[in-house]
Each structure stands twice: as C-alpha cells, then as structure tokens.
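Q: Here's a chain of 188 amino acids. Please give me its 3D structure as tokens.
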Amino acid sequence: MTTMTPGARRILDVAAELFYAHGIHAVGVDTIAAESGVTKRTLYDRFGSKDVLVATYLRERDERWRARVSAAVAAESEPARRVLAPFAVLADWVAEGTSRGCAFVNAFAEIDDPGHPAFAVIRDEKRWLRDLFATELAGAGVADAETPARQLLVLHEGALVTHAVAAEPGVPAATEAAARLLVDAALS
C-alpha cells in the first residue's frame, strides 16, 4: 500500500471499522467523513469515490492477512504443517475481533457488480488462498493438488462463516483438525 496522508489514513481506518461492523451499503460517506473528522470533499480528494475506498479497505485487509499467512507458512519446515499454516493462523485472526466473519464474503454479499473496484480484490483473495494450498500441497508431493486445495479452501471459508453465524466455540481448532485429516489423506 502506498503512503497515505494522516487524513487519508484516518478515513481508511474509520471506514474499515464501520464497513466491517455495519456493512458497506449501511455506511455512507457522510458518516465516514464525520467520524474521521474530515470533510466529504477531503474523503473524495483522497479516494475519489466510496467504491475506491471500499476496494482500498479490502486490499489493505488482504495484505495484512496474506502477510500473516505467508509468515506462518515460512516459519514451518514440515510440508504438512506448511499446508495447514492458514488454519493455525485462523484461530488468532478470529480471536482479534473478526466476529462478523470474513470481510470478503460479507463484501461479496453486498457487491454484485463485477465492474466494482472491490470485486476483483474479493475474488483475488480467495484465489490466492486456494493457490497457496495447491502450491504447498504440490510441494509436499501431492500429484493432484487442485482437488484437496479446493476442499481446504471450503473448510477454511466455512470456519469463518460458522464462527460468525453460529457463534460456535472452538471452530478454528475443529477446522484445523478436519484440514489435517484432508492433508494426511492427500499425502498418503
């Protein structure tokens, strides 16, 4: 992400909190500007439109998630643990206040226009995780890595939804155990 002015940073931080807590359509630029302590003109000068602000919010969240997952993968030397690293990270991620589930799934539910600047960010985040699973599975010696990679993606996404909607305790740990079974089967 490029360097932002302090005002732009404040706008983005406030928008991120509001979008995640209340939804994209429920939060207007008037509210974001007021809570950021800037004028609407400043908001538009810094981001151009609410759509660009939404895309920037999601892109920044994606960058934080990728950095965390990539660090967890890099910290592992055992191939199976490298594949499972996104599940290990998930427990900490949801403990940090992601009670509304996946920001990308939530945004996708609100954005149905493929031309919206956030649409590609949402799709890319999911593809990246699937590709990471496939790459790590292939590196572990799995010949057909695409099938278990898709299964792991479904488990991962399901964990976020179940954690948020059902408020089911222990979902990250249960999901990691299920993922381990999938990985073990793929490695056999």
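Q: Can you summarize the key feature?
A: Residues 1-48 form a domain with the Arc Repressor Mutant, subunit A fold (CATH 1.10.10.60).
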